[in-house]
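*** Query protein ***
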Amino acid sequence: MTTYTWITQPAGDWGAETNWQPTGGPPGVVPTGTTDVADLISTGGLETFIVSVAPGETFNLSTVNLQASNNTHEVNLEIQGGG
């Protein structure tokens, strides 16, 4: 199991390794992906994440964690199809 943290604010491509830390991601895509954890932690009051998934691209995770920076407990995740 590997835990990856989304480092691209506010939006980016789920499949781009540079959007994740540690590098070597993205989570859920590598062969052991079904045990990966993705942490999306907002910064600077941002409470919406927008990630894009390209056609034919898939991911399979154990857990996706969303965390607000201002403790409002209101974080949004929007997944868009690329094309």
In short: The chain has a mean pLDDT of 76. The chain is about 0% helix and 35% strand.
